[in-house]
Amino acid sequence: MIHSATPQSMQNRSITHSTTRSAADEIAVKLEQMRTVLRETGAAGVCLRGTDWFSWATAGATHTVLLAAETGVAEVLVTEQGAWIVTSEIEAPRFKDEELIDRSTGSAGFELMVYPWSDAAAQLRLIAEVTQGGMILSDRPARSDHWTESPLPPSLIQQKRILLPSELERYRRVGRLASEAMTEVMNQVQPDWTEYQLAGAGAAALWARGLHPALTLAAGERRLPLYRHPIPTADLIGQMAMLVFCARGEGLYANLTRFVYWGSLSTAEANLHHQVQQVEAAALNACRSGIPLNQIYEVMAQAYQDCGNAQAIREHHQGGTTGYLAREVIATPTSTDRLAANMALAWNPSLSGAKIEDTFVLLEDGSLENLSFDPSWPSAEIEGRLRPLPLER
Q1: In whole angstroms, what is the distance from residue 163 CA to residue 362 CA?
Q2: Which residues of the chain fall below pLDDT 50?
Q3: Rounded to whole angstroms, how far apart are CA atoms 219 and 228?
Q4: In the prediction, which pLDDT does 220 show?
Q5: Distance between the two ends of the chain, CA-based, in angstroms?
Q6: DSSP conformational letter for 340
């Protein structure tokens, strides 16, 4: 049974769409992109299951219940004739009330396709009915006795990674909120806190702003120099700390890293942070539309070598493009994916005890906009860009 939704505005969300109109326009563009793929491939439908693809298709809506899951409690199904949010009767009321865009604006939005939670086979029957058993394209192709599923074509994957104006508007909002949460927590943390407490305070600050704390890494004085991905422990912070966020809001990820020290940095510590700033500057300077990621990787490898740390390129991944995933594509020696205008990126060069990271977007004019910049955080101009310094307290 297919039910039409009676959507309401989304003003009660902590982070809302900028306007119903812009969200409706964005959905209309993406429906047309998916239907173009259907015409090009002869497929009967597109089915999107991943958290990233669901938010992309719905202009920032979420189907996430279990925060750590890569899929959620609903799917997007698009055919030439219709577009649906496929979900169970448990989830349908929330989608109807809080997630679906008001169709009174005239947009070609989504309807609800609802099945009984106790009868998963009903979902398959409904999808088979509207696709007439034809081939389905999916971000996560599954085996089915009712139809054939194939991966999404590269053209649609590339379109997902290039931000529309309304997506960039949302991204600016998410980046600002994430950076404000970071600044708040790093001004509160105390040397006698545990890493658990620091990570928990970070998560609380993100939730308070309507952001999912998809990743909160925290390390204090003992563990900070030891591990590139320091999962929080009961260790005390001591005289320095690092906090890392991958904060998800309206489907988009703001990635950033900050440090705090009690007292002044030693000469050796200041030098480490200066070196990662130089490596990042080399990467940012190389970011131009059409440049493959492996070329930027090689630029960073050379920058590490120039500062006497040639091995560091092998000790941690250096980041890459971002957007609806914390990293859409990580730069490696073999990454041939190319940057394009309106693509987001986050580099995170690191050395033992130092790291730098923010989320940028490569604009149409070739400039880079820092989406996670907080003007209240201490910064210095590096290669013409304001970059964060360790906070000295």
Answers
A1: 10
A2: 1-18, 103-107
A3: 10
A4: 98
A5: 61
A6: -
Measured between alpha carbons, how far is 281 from 275 in angstroms, rounded to an integer?
Answer: 10
Closest CA relative to residue 123, chosen from 139, 101, 146? 146
Residue 315 identity: E
pLDDT tens readout for residues 170-193: 999 999 999 999 999 999 999 999
**Coil/strand/helix, residue 82:** coil
Phi then psi dihedrals of residue 123, to 5 deg: -60, -45
232 Cβ contact partners less than 8 Å away, ≥ 6 residues apart? 194, 195, 196, 198, 199, 216, 217, 218, 219
- What tokens were used for 390? 């360790």
Tens-place pLDDT, residues 108-127: 589 999 999 999 899 999 99
Give the residue from 222, 224, 220 showing the smallest Cα distance to 237. Answer: 220
Q: Are 230 and 242 in contact (CB under 8 A)?
A: yes
Residue type, 295: Q
Residue span(s) of the chain under CATH 3.40.350.10 come to 2-152
pLDDT at site 30: 97
Q: How far apart are CA 71 and CA 260, in angstroms?
A: 35
Q: Please classify residue 141 by burial: count the beta carbons closer than 10 Å to its beta carbon, then call 0-12 exposed, 13-18 middle and 19+ buried.
A: middle
CA separation for the pair 144, 152 (Å, rounded): 17
DSSP-assigned beta bridge partners for residue 319: 347
165-392 homologous superfamily = Creatinase/methionine aminopeptidase superfamily (3.90.230.10)
Phi then psi dihedrals of residue 28, to 5 deg: -60, -40
Provide the 8-state DSSP code for 236: B
Question: Buried b vs exposed e over 174-203: b needs ≥16 C-beta within 10 Å?
Answer: bbbbbbbbbbbbbeebeeebbbebbbbbbb
Q: Which fold has domain 2-152?
A: Creatine Amidinohydrolase; Chain A, domain 1 (3.40.350)
Length of the chain: 393
**Residues ≥6 apart with Cβ < 8 Å to 334:** 294
Q: Which amino acid is at 274?
A: H
Helix (H, G, I), strand (E, B) or coil at 298: helix
Number of other CB atoms surrounding residue 65 within 10 Å: 12
